[in-house]
Amino acid sequence: MIPWLADNSPFPLLESALQEPNGLLAAGGDLSPERLLAAYRQGIFPWYSEGQPILWWSPDPRMVLFPDELKISRSLAKRLRNSDYEVRFDMAFRDVMLACAETQRPQQDGTWITADIIDAYCKLHELGYAHSAETWIDGRLMGGVYGVAIGHMFYGESMFHHVADASKIAFVHMVQRLKQQGFELIDCQMKTSHLASLGAREITRAEFSQRLAELVNYIHP
Predict the structure, then answer these.
(1) Residue 67 belongs to a domain with what CATH number?
(2) Is the model's pTM score more than 0.90?
(3) Average pLDDT, rounded, for the chain
(4) Which end of the chain, N or C, is more open, meaning fewer C-beta atoms within 10 Å of its C-beta?
(5) 161 pairs with which residues across the strands?
(6) Left (φ > 0), alpha (ψ -120 to 50) or beta: where does 90 sit?
């Protein structure tokens, strides 16, 4: 059994998360900016389907990308050198989320990016915590990625593409921008072959929590 969160109740200790399904920690609560920011500061994120209660997760191990370890394949490097696209930041945040919600993914029935999730993260965007990178081609949004930034920690949430490599282009530009700004770690949550191909790897929850505690409390000079 997992605990049910009342309005003001804190999250349980991460060590109490279930092993199966991996990382399920709690249910309930809300998607207010205060609750979401408190979750991310502890390495917890919401993930649930329409019709389910809000479920909170902290998996072990954790998939992360160190910006210095970003891998760019030869074909992607060639694509990045083309000048037929433009990358913009935070110009179409809600549209990126909507496109991510509509993207069909293997072995996934429906989407976890519900209307409530979209509204909640758009509030974080308005508050300056959530950001998007967008690939535009011929004036049309063709790919993108969004996530949450706290201190010098970035939490990648989802990405989409309508043409080949459009999401990777946005992701690479996002990582390079974060690196320039001093971000040291990008949370990728769960392992996928796609993320691994870009250089992401797994670390233990304990190591993730230790690094997280330092990065989220970074104060910009």
Answers:
(1) 3.40.630.70
(2) yes
(3) 94
(4) C
(5) 143
(6) left
Helix and strand numbers, DSSP H then E, in the chain: 7, 11
* CA 93 centroid distance within chain: 13
Are 25 and 68 in the same domain?
Answer: no
Residue 79 lies inside a defined structural domain of this protein: yes
> Do 125 and 175 belong together in one domain?
yes
- Measured CA to CA in angstroms, residue 221 lies from 34, 96, 125 at distances of 24, 31, 22
Query: Which positions ≥6 away from 77 have C-beta within 8 Å?
Result: none
The CATH number linked to 24 is 3.30.70.3550
Whether residue 171 is contained in a domain is answered as yes
Query: Residues 90, 179: one domain?
Result: yes
Q: What tens digit of pLDDT does each residue of 111-132 get?
A: 789 999 999 999 999 999 999 9
Residue 184: domain span: 63-216
In a domain, 72, yes or no: yes
DSSP states along 69-126: G----HHHHHHHH-SS-EEEESSSHHHHHHHHHH---TT--S-S--HHHHHHHHHHHH
| Residue 179: inside a domain | yes
- Classify residue 189 as left (phi > 0), alpha (psi -120 to 50) or beta: left
Tell me the per-residue pLDDT of 135-152, one tens digit each, with 9 for 90 and over.
999 999 999 999 999 999
Provide the pLDDT for residue 105.
Answer: 56
Calculate the alpha carbon distances from 123 to 36, 130, 137, 199 in Å: 11, 8, 27, 30
